[in-house]
Amino acid sequence: MPHSQKQKQGGTMDQDVAYGKQVSAGTRDLRTIDCNPDFWYPVAWSRELKVGKTIGTRYAGQPIALVRPVEGGVFALEDRCAHRQVPLSKGVVKGQAVQCCYHGWAYGRSGRCIDVPYLGKGKLPNGVRTYPCREEGGLIFIFPGDPALADSVPFPKLAQVANPAFKTRQFGPRVKCHYTFMHENLMDMNHQFLHRRQMGQIRSRLLGQDRGEDFVEARYSFARTGTHQPLAEALIFGRHRDLEGREQPVEEVVTIRTEYPYQTLTIVDKDGDMIMSLWAAYVPQSADQRESRAFGLLSVLRPKIPFLIDVIWPVLGGFTNRIFEEDREIVEMEQQAWDAQGGDWNVEVFPVVNHLRALLARCGDQTVK
Amino acid sequence: MPHSQKQKQGGTMDQDVAYGKQVSAGTRDLRTIDCNPDFWYPVAWSRELKVGKTIGTRYAGQPIALVRPVEGGVFALEDRCAHRQVPLSKGVVKGQAVQCCYHGWAYGRSGRCIDVPYLGKGKLPNGVRTYPCREEGGLIFIFPGDPALADSVPFPKLAQVANPAFKTRQFGPRVKCHYTFMHENLMDMNHQFLHRRQMGQIRSRLLGQDRGEDFVEARYSFARTGTHQPLAEALIFGRHRDLEGREQPVEEVVTIRTEYPYQTLTIVDKDGDMIMSLWAAYVPQSADQRESRAFGLLSVLRPKIPFLIDVIWPVLGGFTNRIFEEDREIVEMEQQAWDAQGGDWNVEVFPVVNHLRALLARCGDQTVK
Amino acid sequence: MPHSQKQKQGGTMDQDVAYGKQVSAGTRDLRTIDCNPDFWYPVAWSRELKVGKTIGTRYAGQPIALVRPVEGGVFALEDRCAHRQVPLSKGVVKGQAVQCCYHGWAYGRSGRCIDVPYLGKGKLPNGVRTYPCREEGGLIFIFPGDPALADSVPFPKLAQVANPAFKTRQFGPRVKCHYTFMHENLMDMNHQFLHRRQMGQIRSRLLGQDRGEDFVEARYSFARTGTHQPLAEALIFGRHRDLEGREQPVEEVVTIRTEYPYQTLTIVDKDGDMIMSLWAAYVPQSADQRESRAFGLLSVLRPKIPFLIDVIWPVLGGFTNRIFEEDREIVEMEQQAWDAQGGDWNVEVFPVVNHLRALLARCGDQTVK
Does residue A246 share a domain with residue A107? Predict the structure, then answer.
């Protein structure tokens, strides 16, 4: 990795374009760079894994069995019996072990095979791989890379999930695209045109950007250019009107940040107080990493009027779902175009996105497949 | 291309067989020869494209956006935004331009990018490819090959679509096979056995054939060998009975002609007057050209009794649909067999079809993929 | 093939493990070894092929048309017209011939083309391949290998299908896995854990094994370790209780035998009399042999009380179907794991299964694809 090159840029878009660099010929295609496994990745919602049960999940084609014993924390094993490779997650949790559904081989928390019902204890075969595992904020995380690094790699801050002043919504669609498309989608707020039916006419303005060795950040303000403000938006931010009732520019600042490998979106009001915070991870599902599962936590500041947040919650949920559905559809189209072309033909003119692409390439898994 | 070798052959089938040549070993497999793009191909029905809208279509794997502005004719662009490759046909028509649904990049009739909403006009990136485009007879055509040839390549005559003495029916199924199977299917009228449930027992007789540099033609008469004549056929041709009420041989002549790349079927009555005319094009959909979309225009002479044609139209429609469904099923089986075998094992004994195969090979795209 | 190495082993499991050999590195992956075609394989149930009809079936990707003329036995042709390769099984049976549905070419019992309706008899093209064909015990068999061997290769004994003291049930699911997984599944009776919901808790005990050049056999007894005995099992074997009503070990002996390429399961009671007999063949469907169709005949001794077998038959059917459904699901998971891994990672500790694997590898088709 190159040494830290932190810098701050405001400037107009046109100036930025002059500095924007296209990915030059010979550079590796970003969509062929795997996500770096030496980080903590969510692989399931806590509510999906009942007490005394096991479920199967995956990271980049690796099958993973999550096990929640009646006593003790969740643990994560390679979801493949050492015997005949069938998923352990189809098996039975027994004490601190999981027993394969087929011939009953049992594996403990350490992955070691501790019982083959028809074999002497002295003959037990080797066990299966384990993954470091943590449960936080309603999510189950594993560390798919080098286990020796798990303790030293920082665990992410999960939006405002632990802050009672906020109410947090979970969302987690599966998206048929490379994780990099999702980072670029959110980072480039010039795509408000996509959401014109949900949001009305909005013009974004880049206020500034930051970048460093492991992050890219962009700050935006938004101005409404049409007259219609959607209900859900008004409920969160209030109406923006002047004394004559004309709508006014929104004064909130929206900050998008990819701090590898996570992405956040934070909204502060004109006084600098946070009113919304989103944290998201895009977890590769298939071995070719062209399918992802998003895990998102969206924390919204509770309004001063008690219970109002609960009343508006379903509206907010439907609104964000519709927005996300549009985003899902477009990034899947991008992946389909990449598949059809067999490569990345993008012509990016927005410097923030080019910085982000460089970040994702630099921090990703450099292994050539 | 070989120089023109026009000749006329009548003769019996058995004589013809003696002259029939199998495709010799070493010859290129006909199902790997792409359709020649230097012709006008229909890619949509006019009614599919509403005013002020854009739709996506394709030619041989190339995505194409058709745009119908409120004023001016239809135009055709590469259906792929220069920015992030998503389909322009998901976008919005604005004046003489189409605006990408994602970040709002706009492209004019020439394919040039004329606006990026968040970028200065001096910085506009390159645009997208265009296709010569014409709208005739309820069909939208493009010229997928070298645009410089578009003006000089003859535009096809579309059955009797412009002749008020005829009523024209459109049909356009998608067929999962190489376009060449469809040409061979129609040209070989010995396949009436396939339609025995729809047509009753019919025996075709080859009256003669013609061929030239860019066409193959065969003329047939038909004799009914069973007793049942279907209603739809009787409605078009009238009943064929002698004075004692016995059914008589049909005296119409059916001419099938592939004039590359189009195919026609014409029926003239015993006086030599045309009573039916079919024009069809088989347009490759996928890049491997193993899927086609047929566009057919079937013109039927209006009977002397006014409105009778409108009364019989639904019967005729159902009849031709059932016939075509049988043809679709069988040519898809041929493609499936080719796929399973990985090559063409056909043993053709009918000279007309061998001439047709040679024509399709000779006129097709000679590029080796 | 190595010369015959027949031996008999009883011994405990732990001793056996010491002699168990893993498939060593460099050995060919068992799941890439095709089934040996020089045997009789069932390809359809007799009831599927009505008089005067033809149906399509397949062996390892080879399409086969089975034809049952009104008079004379069933015959089997390559299911591909010599003309344009469409399935003959879509055609019409006419006397001792089948006529292709497309242009009406006709093929006799010998595979020879005996008529092209529009061609002189002197010009008839070659015909299609035939397969030796036999109909026995409600099954239609073909010999897909070298036809010269068909008469000398022994025809299998089909359970007790011809014995009126037994009632025989047919079952024949399609299973998306290599045939070898199915042999191993049945041979290894330590997989009773898989059927714990159907069978209750059962512990198998290996009584002994035999093996020879073309077979592997294992004999088991079973002890119930839980209290619940399923109804269907009690109906076949009776309840096993001592004088105080406590359940007793089952004293029947279950013998599983793979005599290449078939597999049998036989149950004898404590007096050595057969009470149940299963015969099964696993027939590769796709060319890569990763899909199979099982044909099973399950013969159950009729109880002394007349008609009792008919009363319990549906219960028995549902019971065996549920058991088989669990087996189908698990062997398909094994195939999925193999596909995902791209190879066999199994660690087998049970000598019987390792002997079986060696048998299947040795007797299989040694051709490298």
Answer: no
3-state class of B290 per DSSP? Answer: coil
Q: Which residue has the higher pLDDT, A223 or C154?
A: C154
What does the DSSP 8-state code read for residue C160? T
Read off the pLDDT of each residue in A26-34 and give the average, rounded to a whole number: 89
Domain boundary among B92, B115, B149: B149
Best C59, C81, C85, C369 member to test B by mutation, with max B CBs in 10 Å, is C85
Contact C119 B13 (CB under 8 A): yes
CATH code where residue C77 lies:
2.102.10.10
In a domain, A21, yes or no: yes
DSSP string, A132-199: -EEEETTEEEE--S-GGGTTTSPPPP-TTTT-TTEEEEEE--EESS-HHHHHHHHH-GGGGGGGHHHH
Q: What is the mean pLDDT of residues C135-159?
A: 97
For residue B234, the SS3 value is helix
CA distance B235 to chain C (A): 26
CATH of the domain at C353: 3.90.380.10
Mean pLDDT computed over A8-20? 34
Chain B residues lying within 8 Å of A334, measured CB to CB: 84-86
Full domain range(s) for residue C128: 50-149
* Range C156-175 average pLDDT: 95
Residues B257 and B108 in one domain: no
Query: Smallest Cβ distance to A85: which of C13, C337, C350?
Result: C337
Lowest mean pLDDT among A7-16, A319-328, B272-281, B355-364: A7-16
Do A112 and A253 fall into the same domain?
A: no
The mean pLDDT of chain B is 88
Domain boundary among the residues A149, A172, A202 is at A149
Q: Which amino acid is located at C109 in the chain?
A: R
- Say whether B191 and C117 touch across the interface (CB within 8 A): no
Q: Given an 8 Å threshold on Cβ–Cβ distance, is C193 in contact with A99?
A: yes
**And the tokens for A50?**
């009942």
Q: What is residue C123's predicted lDDT score, i.e. its pLDDT?
A: 82
Interface with chain A: mutation pick from C330, C341, C356, highest number of A CBs within 10 Å: C330
Do C213 and C283 fall into the same domain?
Answer: yes
C43 domain residue, yes or no: no
Any domain includes A369? no
Q: Are residues C203 and C345 in the same domain?
A: yes
For chains B and C, CB pairs below 8 A equal 63
Q: Residue C86 has what pLDDT?
A: 98
The whole-number average pLDDT for the span A309-319 is 83
Q: Is the separation of the CB atoms in A100 and A86 below 8 Å?
A: yes
Average pLDDT over residues C50-54: 98
Mean per-residue pLDDT for C137-158? 97
- Checking B267-273 for CB contacts under 8 A at 24+ apart, the result is B269/B237, B273/B301
- Report pLDDT for B26: 53
Q: What is the reported pLDDT for A24?
A: 42
Query: Nearest CA to B265 among B305, B322, B324?
Result: B324
Asked if pLDDT for residue C357 goes beyond 60, the answer is yes
A211, exposed or middle or buried, with CB in 10 Å at 0-12, 13-18, 19+? Answer: buried
Question: What is the DSSP code string of B253-274?
Answer: EEEEEEETTEEEEEEE-TTS-E
Task: Note the pLDDT tens digit of each residue in A61-77.
Answer: 999 999 999 999 999 99
Compute the distance between CA of residue B283 and CA of residue B298 in angstroms, rounded to an integer: 17
A306 inside domain: yes
| Six-digit token string for A271 | 């006084």
| Chains touching B, CB cut-off 8 Å, 3+ pairs | A, C
With an 8 Å Cβ cutoff, the interface of chain B facing chain A consists of 61, 63, 80, 82-87, 90, 99-104, 116-120, 122-123, 125-126
- Structure-token match 């409605």, residue found: B235
User: Taking residues A235-258, what's their average pLDDT?
Assistant: 68
Distances (CA, A) of A336 to A346, B80, B241: 13, 11, 60
